[in-house]
Amino acid sequence: MLPDPNLFLSLGKPVKDEYGRFVGEIASFAVKPNGIVDSVYIRQSDGQFTKYPATNIRIEGSEVIFLSTIKMETTNFCDKIPLIWRKDQALNELLEKKKISPEVYEDLHNSFEGALNQLKSEAQTLIEKIEKEMERCSQEIRELNYALVHLEVEHEIGEIDNQSYQTSLSTIQECLKRANTEKSDLANMKNKLSNILLGETLNKPVPNVSAALKPPASLSPLLPEPPVIVYVKEAGESHI
Fold it and tell me: Among candidates 82, 95, 115, which has minimal Cα distance to 203?
């Protein structure tokens, strides 16, 4: 993914994340010799400067949006894992059609398989990071709900006037909306990654072990003929 070509226009502008939370402001850039912006320096609200890849920044009209690293990594894995798997499958088909030699197949297959296993391991680590972020969101939602209850109680007994109550209520509700949206996005990312990994595993060709283990017909044991059961009607039975 290439950085946004309008990044230079964002210098000094405030940066928000995808959920509207303030991140900081664009302070400077790191530019490659070919003129492409490689990184962005953001001055955060606490005064610290942090360097981020330029691909994490997106310009939407007059707004500068910071894209989460987890979301970008998820997209990357969801693109690369199926692509390598399809290449490996195509390689296998070429071998079956005798368009490549077994030696070339083995070499490239091992290369694809090694890359695929590496990506799957990294994707599993990312899933664990997503789960931690989901727990963070859950904790934030719990705290906001408690804050909402306390606000309602204090307003109910007259300790907080209506104007202050409405202002605080609006703030808490907005924070709850953001936290719930972020948690939902994280859950979708986790499911997407899990489905990619599961699908790659399920679609792997499985050797026909049963055929290999089946004994030849000449060695198959002879089974006895099934017994013949004869029903005899008693002499005194009536006909219907």
Answer: 82
Which conformational region is residue 47 in: left (phi greater than 0), alpha (psi within -120 to 50 degrees), or beta?
A: left
Q: What is the pTM of this model?
A: 0.74
- List strand residue ranges (DSSP E) for the chain, in order: 14-17, 22-31, 37-44, 49-53, 57-60, 63-66
Does 49 share its domain with 83? Answer: no
Domain that holds residue 60: 7-67
Tell me: do 63 and 79 sit in the same domain.
no
- CATH code of the domain containing 27: 2.30.30.240
Looking at residue 43, what is its pLDDT?
A: 94
What would the pLDDT profile of 161-217 be if each residue is shown by its tens digit?
Answer: 999 999 999 999 999 999 999 999 999 999 999 999 987 555 554 433 233 333 333
Residue type, 37: V
Q: Give the pLDDT band of residue 4 (cuts 50, 70, 90).
A: low
Last residue of a domain, one of 33, 67, 101: 67
User: Between vectors from CA 15 to CA 14 and to CA 21, what angle results, nearest 5°?
Assistant: 110
Q: Is residue 55 part of a domain?
A: yes
CA distance 49 to 54: 15
Residue-level pLDDT at 239: 44
Is there a domain that residue 47 lies in?
yes
Tokens encoding 105: 């197949």
